[in-house]
Amino acid sequence: MNNLDEIKDWIALCNAKARYCRTLDTKDWDGFRDLFTEDYELDVSDGTGKPVIKGRDAAMASVQSSILTAKTAHQVHTPEITLNGDEAHAIWAMQDRVVWGPDKSLTGYGHYHERWVRQNGEWKIAALKLTRLHMDFQFPAPAA
Amino acid sequence: MNNLDEIKDWIALCNAKARYCRTLDTKDWDGFRDLFTEDYELDVSDGTGKPVIKGRDAAMASVQSSILTAKTAHQVHTPEITLNGDEAHAIWAMQDRVVWGPDKSLTGYGHYHERWVRQNGEWKIAALKLTRLHMDFQFPAPAA
Amino acid sequence: MNNLDEIKDWIALCNAKARYCRTLDTKDWDGFRDLFTEDYELDVSDGTGKPVIKGRDAAMASVQSSILTAKTAHQVHTPEITLNGDEAHAIWAMQDRVVWGPDKSLTGYGHYHERWVRQNGEWKIAALKLTRLHMDFQFPAPAA
Fold first, then answer.
1. Which end of chain A has the smaller Cβ count within 10 Å, N or C?
2. Phi, psi of C11 (to 5 degrees)
């Protein structure tokens, strides 16, 4: 960060990512959707070979189908942000707690790797790739 | 954040909230108490209908009675801060781990919604409301 | 934080600590090593009487022997940073998840207390002391 404008962008990007987590976890889907570009690309494959999800509509549908009935807490930490005019790259440490029911839940750890673009003065996420460090799953015991 | 003074306030508020967590978890009660206004209002009802606790003395007594014998770690993330002169509003993502004993503990997730005021140049919390996303309780199994 | 240069230092220190966590957890040992001074001192004794580890080489060896085969996620929050020219002190809230295997793991909470120095324009950690609030261990049940 080299000057006041870059520091303002740094804080604006932190604010936007805070809204990402809060709108996702409170299921404020309109507020969540507003954080992405129309051509948003979501890559949660993490080495599994799953295809990248292309387009905001498809990404919203995928996220909602995963957690619509779950309680979630996505928390992010210690951004590493690189600014280049109206584009920015960010890496965030992340933790997510996802509870589908009393005997099916996940606590995971990893990083979000993001590309942001400024559109009409507002930062939007154009691409997000999730890499995982570790996931702890709590699943039902198999039927006896 | 529009200018250097606002960015300084943003960092000052982040510092004050860091002290909130550290003094609470290390049970530095004098340092903790110093972070609140005398007319501080604490709302941890989260939809239960519990009354708002009014006044710093009552709030300190309530917090201490909850966790005096527990080990705790309150961690907060990604502030959304709105400044208005000597007043500020903040939303923080939060996680708390509270361990009352080997078979009674809690890991919780939620948000702090706060009103801060500047008194004699120092930011103090005037009101705090906790909303919960999810709580994982570990309680003793009922006696057989 | 009193002026633009101090705010730039504050963000630079946050970035460096973000790299600390990311390089440690992704086992980017060259990147991790680059964050410390040659005379780095690591104190993880936390009241046990264990000696302070002196020197970057010894500290790297100690860290690697602890977690080389483990999956880890070290996450840090809410820095309290004090700047004094080319030296800085920081306190970070921390959480670590360390998984040595399916039945041996740790989730811990505490604070890093650090001294940083600026060398050739880059912030390096000269000393780090870890204090613990609480540790949750998951260990194998004793053999029947």
1. C
2. -70, -40
| Domains in chain B, number | 1
Contact B99 C134 (CB under 8 A): yes
In angstroms, rounded to a whole number, what is the distance separating the alpha carbons of residues C8 and B11? 12
B90: closest CA among B24, B2, B29, B9? B9
> Is residue C96 in a domain?
yes
Confirm whether A144 is domain-assigned.
Answer: no
Answer yes or no: is B20 within a domain: yes
Q: A11 lies in which domain range?
A: 4-138
Residues 6+ apart with CB under 8 A from B3: A4
Contact yes or no for C77/C94 (Cβ under 8 A) = yes
pLDDT at A142: 60
Please check whether residue B11 lies inside any domain of the structure. yes
Q: Give B58→chain A minimum CA distance, Å.
A: 30
| Distant-in-sequence, close-in-space partners of A101: CB < 8 Å, separation ≥ 6 | none
Q: Which residue of C has its CA nearest to A2?
A: C8
DSSP string of chain C?
A: --SHHHHHHHHHHHHHHHHHHHHHHTT-HHHHHTTEEEEEEEE--TTS-PPPEESHHHHHHHHHHHHTTSEEEEEEEEEEEEEETTEEEEEEEEEEEEEEETTEEEEEEEEEEEEEEEETTEEEEEEEEEEEEEEEEE-PPPP-
C14 CB neighbours in chain A (<8 A) are 78-79
Mean per-residue pLDDT over chain C, rounded = 95
> Buried (b) or exposed (e) across C84-95, using 16+ Cβ within 10 A?
eeeebebbbbbb
**C4, exposed or middle or buried, with CB in 10 Å at 0-12, 13-18, 19+?**
middle
Smallest Cα–Cα separation from C76: which of C115, C124, C19, C126?
C19
Block means of pLDDT (10 residues each) for chain A, 144 residues, are 92 98 98 98 96 98 96 98 98 98 95 98 98 92 58
The C-alpha atoms of residue B2 and residue A138 are separated, in whole angstroms, by: 45
Q: Which of A104, A72, A78, A108 is nearest to A93 (CA)?
A: A78
Do C135 and C108 form a contact (C-beta atoms < 8 A)? yes
Chain B: which residues have CB within 8 Å of chain C? 4, 7-8, 11-12, 14-15, 17-19, 21-22, 25-26, 71-73, 75-77, 97, 99
CATH of residue A19:
3.10.450.50
DSSP character at residue A55: S
- Tens of pLDDT, residues C6-42: 999 999 999 999 999 999 999 999 999 999 999 999 9
